[in-house]
Amino acid sequence: MPAVALALYYLAVCARVMRACLRDQIGIDCATTARDEGEAEARVTTGHVLRNALLPVVRAGAR
Asked: Would you state the pLDDT for residue 37?
C-alpha cells in the first residue's frame, strides 16, 4: 500500500510537468508550420509537440 501511495504522487507530478510542457510546446514554429502544411493534428502532436515535451519529463524522472 505505501508503494502505491508513493507511485501515485510521482505519477501526479509527472502528469503536471507533462501538461505544462505540452502547453508550452503546442505553439512552436515547427508545429505551426506542420499544421499549415496540412498534417493531421495527431501527427503534429506526436511527431513535433510530444517529442519536444518529453525531454523535461524524462529529465525530472531521472532525479
From this structure: 94
Identity of the residue numbered 22: L
pLDDT digits (tens, 9 = 90+) for 42-55: 999 998 899 999 98
Alpha-carbon separation of residue 35 from 1, 25, 41 (angstroms): 45, 14, 7
* Calpha distance 56→63 (Å, rounded): 11
Of all residues in the chain, what percent are helix, strand and coil, respectively (each to 5)?
Answer: 85, 0, 15
Single pTM value for the model: 0.74
- Burial class, 43, CB count within 10 angstroms (exposed 0-12 / middle 13-18 / buried 19+): exposed
Residue with cell 506526436: 46
